[in-house]
Amino acid sequence: MQTIKRKPIAGAALPLLLIISLFIACSPDxxxxxxxxxxxxxxxxNNADGTIDSHEDGDVNDLSVVESxxxxxxxxxxxxxxxxxxxxxxTPVEIHLEPAPDPSWRIEYNWFVDNSHISGVSTQILPxxxxxxxxxxxxxxxxKDINSDYHLNTLRxxxxxxxxxxxxxGSISLPELPLPGQxxxxxxxxDPNEPENSPNQTLSYFLEEPESENIIVDKESGEISWSIDxxxxxxxxxxxxxxxxxxxxxGTSISSSFDIPLTTEGEPVSExxxxxx
Length: 277
Known about the structure:
alpha+beta, six-stranded mixed beta sheet, Immunoglobulin-like, 277 residues, 3 helices, four-stranded antiparallel beta sheet
């Protein structure tokens, strides 16, 4: 039998051998074990210029950074925000944070009145012009890292209803009270919850004491009239206390009393006392 010898195709086997050689050279040796005598070799890297970078300190620093971030987040989560239990209308309001925030934090304040966001106000204290009577007030606090702007926590306060202010009593100049005679004067008061001269400035006036001396009080105007004779003056004297109450349409009130000497001479006003409700 004649044997036919095939001639190898020039250059065909060389690339295949080269690929196999590269594959073997690049494959990791699974049987190799880490050296116990040279731990630093696994944590260093040769640079092109011959210097060596060590990763051992970097790993420790990275761990410290992670622990610091976790501590910061935990501190931010422990913060509590609280509004005052009672808030009077047209009085600046401050939101309190406990415990005190870290100086490395940036705090953002968002205020809401009747669930409407107040734009342009991002401070810890809400100006008084936004503190409206009977409105519901709340604040949302956002805590971020001052350098990275990383969000740490968002807090929301409870809603607190703003208390309207009581009426304000004006000064009263009482005329002389001749005996027997008639006392006439007018109570002057205003409602600080409403703009001056507002049609909503609705106040009501009442007599609290004395109840049975025929003192007439106009509920709407606050005008007072009292006819007094000598017998009544002797019975009540040497002075009588007149006590009045003024109520606003907001449900607030103020009481004011006057001591009137029952004499035939001098000014009949000695002092005025007020009680707010």
